[in-house]
């Protein structure tokens, strides 16, 4: 079978995860190009694969590549995705899909027009515990789900933001703890429930990062169209990264996740679903180990011409919920989906972040 030819754009922190996965999938792919504005980072990444490297994204657009991976600041996802697809490349971008719904729509339209495949990284969907709980939910063993909660209490000190020229900014990241950290919890809840959102009420705050123009704390109440009530709390002001907790409460029982471990309560019966992890040992714990599985899924989609598990439409749905949280916080009112998105400026958002 012909190997897919791969290019990676962005050789920063998250690229270490891709480096490991690319080695494990070497029977299916060849890494042809590494790109980073810091040429030394690109050179270092490329050395592992004897591939070419460059500091300029445009250099690879006319190269013979099947897939381009985008590991970039959020504001570059749309322009780089569109350019890559217009030059005949399939694109898998890190989350979020884009900075705005208009950008996401342009990316999806480009995908349809070019016939290429667009995907968005939400690797935690591929956890075995998530798959197990989703199937049990779909089998109806918990009865009608009434409520969901997710709690994220992590630590992001000033140094985390000082190491980057784009994190912690509305202009380049598009938000803080919601779009950067809690977005994975939001996506897992959406994925397991497989239903659309009706409305959102939310508040955001900056409690302990006065140098930033984004939220470090947020809470939201989300109503799904099937009547499920979802309460979300997220903060980056904790002393350490506590395991994320997600819990679904049904008429017959409860189930949920503590980080990657799944659990289930049915009457007096309690079960745990420990994650069987692929042997990916690099990167941060909260990245998980399932980039491997998502990349395999995306490559199969490219080869077979089918939709990946997380395509552009799915990426947009999670982005829409994120943007609804921000708009609700801005206007201090309920936001009903769908809605007309708008650009949120640093000046506008700072007014609601600080007392």
TrEMBL record:
Entry superkingdom: Bacteria
Annotated InterPro entries: Gfo/Idh/MocA-like_OxRdtase_N (IPR000683), Gfo/Idh/MocA_Oxidoreductase (IPR052515), GFO_IDH_MocA-like_dom (IPR055170), NAD(P)-bd_dom_sf (IPR036291)
Domain Gfo/Idh/MocA-like oxidoreductase N-terminal residue range list: 4-119
Naturally occurring in which organism (per UniProt): Oribacterium parvum ACB1
Protein's recorded name: Gfo/Idh/MocA-like oxidoreductase N-terminal domain-containing protein
GO molecular function, a single term: nucleotide binding
Residue ranges occupied by any GFO/IDH/MocA-like oxidoreductase domain in the UniProt entry: 131-255
């Amino acid at each position: 079978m012909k190997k897919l030819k791969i290019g990676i754009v962005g050789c920063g922190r998250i690229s270490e995860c891709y480096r490991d996965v690319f080695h494990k999938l070497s029977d299916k792919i060849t890494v042809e190009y590494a790109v980073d504005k810091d040429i030394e980072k690109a050179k270092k990444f490329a050395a592992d694969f004897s591939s070419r490297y460059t500091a300029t994204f445009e250099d690879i657009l006319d190269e013979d590549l099947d897939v381009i991976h985008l590991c970039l600041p959020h504001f570059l996802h749309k322009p780089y995705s569109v350019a890559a697809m217009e030059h005949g490349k399939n694109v898998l971008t890190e989350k979020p899909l884009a900075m705005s719904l208009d950008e996401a729509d342009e990316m999806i339209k480009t995908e349809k027009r070019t016939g290429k495949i667009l995907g968005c990284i939400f690797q935690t969907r591929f956890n075995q515990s998530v798959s197990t709980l989703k199937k049990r939910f779909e089998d109806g063993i918990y009865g009608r789900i009434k409520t969901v909660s997710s709690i994220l209490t992590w630590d992001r000190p000033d140094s985390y933001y000082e190491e980057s020229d784009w994190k912690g900014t509305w202009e380049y990241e598009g938000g803080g703890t919601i779009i950067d950290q809690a977005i994975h919890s939001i996506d897992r809840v959406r994925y397991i429930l497989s239903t659309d959102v009706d409305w959102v009420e939310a508040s955001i705050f900056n409690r302990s990062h006065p140098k930033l123009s984004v939220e470090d704390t947020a809470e939201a109440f989300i109503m799904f169209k099937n009547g499920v009530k979802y309460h979300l709390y997220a903060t980056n002001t904790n002393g350490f990264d506590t395991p994320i907790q997600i819990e679904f409460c049904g008429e017959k029982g409860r189930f949920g996740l503590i980080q990657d471990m799944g659990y289930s309560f049915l009457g007096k019966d309690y079960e745990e679903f420990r994650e069987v992890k692929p042997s990916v040992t690099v990167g941060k714990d909260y990245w998980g180990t399932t980039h491997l599985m998502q990349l395999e899924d995306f490559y199969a989609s490219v080869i077979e011409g089918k939709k990946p598990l997380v395509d552009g439409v799915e990426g947009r749905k999670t982005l829409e919920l994120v943007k609804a949280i921000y708009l609700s916080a801005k206007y201090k009112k309920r936001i009903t989906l769908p809605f007309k998105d708008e650009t949120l400026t640093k000046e506008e958002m700072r007014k609601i972040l600080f007392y």
